[in-house]
Amino acid sequence: MKKNFFKFLSLTIITSLFINSFVIIDGMFIGSKLGDVGLSAINLSWPITAFLQSIGVALGISAGIYISRLKGLGNIEEANKAKSGTLILILITSIVLGTLFYIFAKPLLILFGAEGDALKYSLDYIKIILLGAPFELLGMSMPQLLKNSDKIKSATFASIIEIIINLILDYIFILVFDFNLWGAALASVISLIGATIICFIFYYKELEKPYIDKKIIKYLYLSSISPFILNYSYAFILIITNYLCVKFGGNEAVAAYTLLSYLLYIIGATAQASGDAIQPLYSFNSANGSHKINHQMLSGSLLFSFILCGLFVVLFYIFSNNLEDLYNLSSVARIYYNDGLIYYLIGFLLTALTKPVCSYLYSVGDRLRSNLLTILEPLILTPLFYLILCPGLKLNGLWMTYLFAQIGVLIASTFFIIRNIRREKLWTDL
């Protein structure tokens, strides 16, 4: 059991960090070339990219569950046909969404707060991303399908190759050829094409002649609603925060928030993966009543997440000035960044303890409370604290909101997990 624990944990964390480093790498090169306005542009356009990626992940999860059900019923051939069918449906979805977003990209970016050079650069960036929309969705959904086929290493390998390609092409397109933001977008699309091809190579042997019926369509899209909302809820906060940053501090404030959000991506990916990695083990033990083992694994997951995230927090603090230089923040943006950093660093330590709890509750069947924890921060606490703090404290209120929201989520997580463990102990005693 311990071997499986560390196997799932290490591979999933590596994969998650690589996937979430996409925008961080783009931001690093863009910041070094264009400074505040470049960072502002990529963050203002990110909600559209996040929408596509969230749809891809949600459809991948939904398809994986549907295929697993068919396998569980012994319908292996039908399951393989469904694999082909779902890939076609995901491809069609990507074309429709890509076209719609391409048409309405400019008014959406203006709605998000983009103006002037930031609007120009963000439009350059997102139009290239949208032309590669099929690979955005396939690149995010196929790793989910590979994991469902017990090919975690293959999914990890594809993610690593994707990041390597993106890193090399970012350097060539942005620093050598001076393509600016559309070069970063082109690098992202090409790297996703590479990852999709690699995933397909590992996956195609399981595919049969495509089979699509109303049942597959209905299940795929209806079952993807919940994971999409959970995945995209944080992009909702990104939209609001970007708008408030523009209002209170212009592109410099958005640039500062962009760097803070990059640090959050790393913490969030690490903490989330610390819980998600061992969800299959949680579910297995819960089904056969091995609650004590689950509680031990949860303790290990929380400790691992806290130590690893704590290490990142120390590194972020020590190398704070280096990060400012790396992303080429202006003097004004550096002031804003340092004002918010302390609140975020403390909040990161709390995030390390809440994400694994959310994954645990979901795995053992307490999905209502798991989903409540997931939406509590982006849809309830953050907007609430923005309303309370921002009118008087402006940007400082914006930074403080993250910490206060994490405190609220930690309190709720503690209450939910204690209640769940007591209930499981009661069932064990019976």
Can you offer a commentary on this structure?
The protein is mainly α. It has one domain (2-429). It is built from 16 helices and no strands. The chain is globular. The two termini are 25 Å apart.
Keyword list:
single chain, 430 residues, mainly alpha
Outline the secondary-structure elements.
Layout: H1 2-34, H2 36-72, H3 76-103, H4 105-112, H5 116-131, H6 133-148, H7 152-176, H8 180-203, H9 214-223, H10 225-276, H11 279-287, H12 291-318, H13 320-326, H14 331-363, H15 367-393, H16 395-429
Helix pairs in contact: 1-2, 1-7, 1-8, 1-10, 2-3, 2-5, 2-6, 2-9, 2-10, 3-5, 3-6, 4-5, 5-8, 6-7, 6-8, 7-8, 10-12, 10-14, 10-15, 11-12, 11-14, 12-14, 14-15, 14-16, 15-16
Instruction: Report strand %.
Output: under 5%
Largest sheet: none
Number of domains: 1
Give the CA-CA distance, first to last residue. 25 Å
Distinct helical segment count: 16
**Uncertain segments:** none
What structural class should be given to the helix and strand makeup? mainly alpha
Give a quick precis of the structure:
The protein has 430 residues and is mainly alpha-helical. Helix content is 90%, strand content 0%.
